[in-house]
Request: fold
Amino acid sequence: MLKNKILIVEDDEIISSIISHMLERRGFNIVGRVTSGEDAIIKSAALEPDLVLMDITLNGLLDGVTAARFIFQLFFFPIVFITAMCDDTQLDQAKSAQPLGFILKPFTERNLISNVELALYNNSIRKKNLGNYPAGDPKKIMVSLDAIFILDTKGRIIFLNPYAAQFIGLSENQIMMNYWRDVMMLINDQTDEQLEDPFPEVVRQNISVTHEQNTAIVTKSGKRWPVSIAIQPLMDENDTLYGILMHIREKTRAQIKMAKKAG
Reply:
């Protein structure tokens, strides 16, 4: 029987080690231990855990609640929160991640294991009714040769697939949590004029914006690529905007020639 895969997101090394030891002793497979919300989103897509144990209060630019919301809404990986305290405001915010449990610190091994086992069971029932992935199957995203970015509602890059970093020519750390136009910009491929930032319009009107012709991206690293780009809002089950999907596809020479002939 395959062991359930658990991703631990906890910035206290001692607590993270204790959780890992308790779970491994009961036969669970700890596929990763990370300390920030930003890393948690990337690792979730890469490791495909059966459950994410998420500390609500994390160091870094993304707190545990925000990271958990993206992890669940994008990839449907179930969340159990771990917290030393949880007031009404935190509880209301945490609901957006649809957590399957809360574990209060300090906790016992019995408390941890029972919450994990119950969450895994409840998720086996819930996932039958979750529908399609809003940004695409995480397996396909991670191996795609298109550059795929997820932005938060402030326009900061909170997720990118492996090819996106290669496409931009910067490391993941240089890209994450930056406003998207700080690492690349859209230009008219014929006139070299900078195109208007489409992000505010997508957020304001909840509409998709595409650029198919005469469009290029110039990256902070100095690379220039002719591309087609689609930018679309990501809405949760309450029709509330929680993020933006940016899908960039490099154009081949044949596609560029065909577009010029059509023009």
Remarks:
- The first strand starts at residue 5 and ends at 9.
- The mean pLDDT is 91.
- The domain at 138-262 is CATH 3.30.450.20 (Beta-Lactamase).
